[in-house]
Amino acid sequence: MPKRPPTFVPYVYSHDELARLLQAAKSFERSSLEPGTLPLILLLLYAAGLRVGELVRLDRADVNLPECLMKVRQSKFGKTRLVPFATATAEGFA
Predict the structure, then answer these.
(1) If you write DSSP's letter for every residue of 4-56 in order, what string do you get?
(2) Which of the residues 51, 57, 73, 79 is marked catalytic?
(3) 76 given a catalytic annotation
(4) What global pTM score does this model have?
(5) What is the pLDDT of residues 18-42, one digit of tens each?
(6) Where are the chain's structural domains?
(7) Could you confirm whether 51 is annotated as catalytic?
(8) Looking at 20, 26, 76, 81, which residue is catalytic?
(9) Which of 45, 47, 84, 87 has a 20 to 30 A CA-CA distance from 19?
(10) 89 in helix, strand or coil?
């Protein structure tokens, strides 16, 4: 019998680690990105649980800030899904 691979245990960042990561992203300067873009990318990937491909396909029309809801198109298996996000994440869009 083949051995089963070990169970994957995801790493959950502490609030302090997330704050430091977002602070480092804010200070990262890259001429091809608008200021604030990298922290928002990290927030959406982590807080909303988006996949990279889903993030890349997001449109402004897909984000409903008042209702804190995103329409994620072409998700896994080509489906569309609605993803709620916290009001604190919505502040990153402003």
Answers:
(1) PPPPP------HHHHHHHHHHHHH---TTS-TTHHHHHHHHHHHS---HHHHH
(2) 51
(3) yes
(4) 0.72
(5) 889 989 988 887 767 788 888 888 9
(6) 15-93
(7) yes
(8) 76
(9) 84
(10) helix
